Amino acid sequence: MKANILTGKNQPLIFQETETPGCKAGEVLVHLHASAFNRRDYWIQQGQYAGLKYPVIPGSDGSGVIVKTGEGVNSALEGTSVIINPGFLWGESESAQSPTRFRILGMPDNGTFAEYVSVPVEYTFERPSHLTHLQAAALPLAGVTAYRTLFSRANLTSGEKVLITGIGGGVALFTLQFALAAGAEVWVTSGSEEKIEKAKKLGAKSGVSYRNPEWAKSLLTEAGNFDVIIDSAGGEGFPDLLNLAAFGGRIAIYGGTKGSFAALSPQKIFWKQLSILGSTMGSPEDFRNMTAFVSTHKIIPVIDTELPLSDANEGMNRLAQNTQFGKIILNHTGVL
After folding, report:
1. How far apart are the C-alpha atoms of 302 and 315, rounded to whole Å?
2. pTM score > 0.70 for this model?
3. Which of 46, 40, 28 shows the shortest CA–CA distance to 113?
4. Which of 145, 155, 235 is nearest to 191 (CA)?
């Protein structure tokens, strides 16, 4: 098979022939029709990720067709169109993943930037029927992260007001789409006015640019306080979120691109009875509920760029520029 192989830190992906993976007991071999980039893939290439192992085929997201089943797997599954849950060995507790066993497809295990991938059958889910392979490939990692953050952790309910920081990335956009489908009023922030306007076209009420030093005051004046705030940045602007949160508000965090928090006021946290919630990926139950939610509400992922499998380095470059609005997709077959 052909695959994109990462041979070391800060190295380009090499598109070349490599051995097609086998199919062990309990596994299925998936012929991938499409895959998608996540910010994780960029950090792995930069060498800024735990447990690095080279050479490796990156990629956590994929959609395709089961073409072979291993021992103990029903052969009737062959021909089934599936998406892959990239979070392996979550563990027994819904509250958090296992700190020692949990792993994500694409590092250290070979991932989806290839023609084929072999995975345990329990991590395959039937592709939502309203989505093409290209659309479905956008869903797994970002979709389950958004779902868990918004519903399992922040417990969003219909009619609440939500703020999503840094709109444009995959998780933030799924959070926007999911919150709107759940009946919430959604506001956004971005460093790009163009991205704010695109978010409004998707249904966001409005938004502000965080490049404005007075962005938080402006947002408070325009929108008032928020029941739920979903953040991926952290950094020196995080204390502003305490001011924007309503009494009893929930601030859920799934990333930290801006680094450590500046000094937080414990008085604001306890007086406003705020909950600050961390979230990473999602459990198998989260993934199952996410795919059902997407199917019920006929949610279609936002695609920024489509590239052939052989042009994966262009996808990495697009991530590095940080200008995308939606997911960057690799089309493996040309037939979607």
Report:
1. 16
2. yes
3. 40
4. 235
pLDDT tens, N- to C-terminus, the chain (336 residues): 999 999 999 999 999 999 999 999 999 999 999 999 999 999 999 998 888 999 999 999 999 999 999 999 999 999 999 999 999 999 999 999 999 999 999 999 999 999 999 999 999 999 999 999 999 999 999 999 999 999 999 999 999 999 999 999 999 999 999 999 999 999 999 999 999 999 999 999 999 999 999 999 999 999 999 999 999 988 888 999 999 999 999 999 999 888 888 789 999 999 999 999 999 999 999 999 999 999 999 999 999 999 999 999 999 999 999 899 999 999 998 755
User: Strand 116-120 relative to strand 327-331: parallel, antiparallel, unpaired?
Assistant: unpaired
Assigned CATH for 144-278: 3.40.50.720
Cβ 130 vs Cβ 295: under 8 Å: yes
Nearest alpha carbon to residue 77 among 133, 140, 127, 28: 28
Instruction: Indicate the CATH number of 2-139+301-331 among 3.30.70.20, 3.90.180.10, 3.40.50.300, 3.40.50.1980.
Output: 3.90.180.10
Where does CATH 3.40.50.720 sit in the chain? Answer: 144-278
Q: What would the two tokens of residue 121 be?
A: 């059958």
